[in-house]
Amino acid sequence: MNDRSANPAAPSVRDVALEAGVSVGTVSRVLNNGRVSPERRARVERAIVTLNYRPNALARSLRTHQSRTLGLVIPDITNPFFSELAYHVEVAAAEAGYWVIVGSAITARREREYLEAVVERRVDGLILVPHRRLVDHVASLGDVPLVVVDREIEGFDVISSDARGGTAACIAYLTELGHSVIGCVAGPQDVLPARQRYEQYVELVEPLLREAGVPVSDYVCFGQFDYRSGFEALMTLAGRTPRPTAVVTSSDQQAIGALRACANIGLRVPADMSIVGFDDVSLAELVEPRLTTVHQDIESMAQHAVQRVLERLAMPRDSPHTPHADVLPTELVIRDSCGPPSA
Amino acid sequence: MNDRSANPAAPSVRDVALEAGVSVGTVSRVLNNGRVSPERRARVERAIVTLNYRPNALARSLRTHQSRTLGLVIPDITNPFFSELAYHVEVAAAEAGYWVIVGSAITARREREYLEAVVERRVDGLILVPHRRLVDHVASLGDVPLVVVDREIEGFDVISSDARGGTAACIAYLTELGHSVIGCVAGPQDVLPARQRYEQYVELVEPLLREAGVPVSDYVCFGQFDYRSGFEALMTLAGRTPRPTAVVTSSDQQAIGALRACANIGLRVPADMSIVGFDDVSLAELVEPRLTTVHQDIESMAQHAVQRVLERLAMPRDSPHTPHADVLPTELVIRDSCGPPSA
DNA sequence: ATGAAAGCGCTAACAT
DNA sequence: ATGTTAGCGCTTTCAT
Q1: Chain A within 8 Å of B136 (Cβ-Cβ)?
Q2: What mean pLDDT is reported for chain A?
């Protein structure tokens, strides 16, 4: 290892002690608000300023077995849902005196690497939005307190929001408006909330479609959560006969992609086509038309996640615990992208 | 400190050595690909698996004086420009075998805290997008290699993109289209690229406006980089007489906010109003109409930043170095939000 | 209240 | 090639 990369001048407790004319123990005590006479405390503090001393968090954590750091591993920091989650997790953690290391794990392999890196860094706890359901590698992580957000892993605490309820609210709203031929842009089915949204859709819409004599399967397109999937799905759905008059999606990004597709093929929203999103990211009310969507309280999810992980970390490791599941309420936000069918 | 929060069972090199019947030195050597006989190597590797051992990165860094970690401190992870930057920095760093800790510092105070935390964690280098120009606290950080992105701090390496050139290209394009009364949504003037965009605008548009007998100051609105500022600015600008037929902005988010405002007051884009963005975040081509904007190569900025910081970190600390400034080219991407003035 | 000293988990220099 | 050991910078007994 190249030792030149060490900061040659970084002062240590020892240097501070020397400068202040006290022992290292005393320096450590002022650093940690221990009992120190005012006179010596002042001397130490002066020395700290003089030397521009900064405690080495590595050494400190090594000694105390805690880092006051949480790890957050998400699939894609570029996705507004996750970047907002990251933001709120940071804020909630900071409030409790914790830092967070976030890792954006675009692939499952990368996720595994991140998880390991973060554990090797001895974070005190872990918040994870895993890629898929079956994450065997979490088991090998040791007994770091871990909470899963927006997904589900057997045996761990999970924080999610009420996907079924949200979807049901969408469908109810649309049928009330007069729609019956309702399409669905579904998300990846190995992701829990996407599956729930899909299942709830089928449960509610299949009867309607059967009445019209068409198979539900023709009115569902599976894809990712991204814009492109929404775009492509809408192109497909718009080709069905009878053409759906409304489409529910699994993310705002899909919905915005669908909006784009409508614009491209001359379908007016909502006159010719109603679109409903999912998530209510801040962009939702800035597109044209403003998106009717299902609001997920990301801030609250973040707060619950941090609280749970801190809770786990405060209890003895071997204490028995049943995993806890928090399902946060979800709410339909009505804006401009839905209306009665024009036919 | 509460010792219960330590992982009680986390095995150490010593445990592995015991299990494998070798010395700690040998274990360390297999961990670091040193010379070890195949036979003992195998024994150690087996022990590692058996114990589910993970090296303690803290102890390792403490000993070697390097963490193979970079710190990235940005103003707001929620802003797509920065989240894309974060993503690409992570990728570029990973390629070189480095991890990155990202901190989203919404306030200047928070920025200072992050910078300190990250230095205390002994990151090998730092990439920073500072809040304001005058960041006295970076000086007190010690001599960590630091590169500044998209801003400028005296004495440090900086990576930026050609804001002036980008703005000039917008204006040229608009005048070619026939516009002369061009408004401007400016960004915070203590942020370098925002100031450059503004200055370039004034330089180019003031002569045009003077001809029309109106003061430029009436055609500029200052704000943040966010949607709301763009929205509000456009509302103001649309009230001027003569009404501008085109507006240049300082970010895509501003531009999207402006698009919204146009929709609200019944201004068609681009027929009644041309809008040009800045940044070309992935969202730009997904709004309706698709945004004509100035493309910044975020990926390239990220790569340059990582490369520079790695470079600094490889050279001896006391070696003389003139700060380097990389200004990356910028490019006008023509999509649908601009057209000739209809009047 | 303070100093001396042990030790957190690891690597690297030194012996062998 | 392998074992032994000092020490990275810190906190925390244990004496005093």
Answers
A1: no
A2: 93
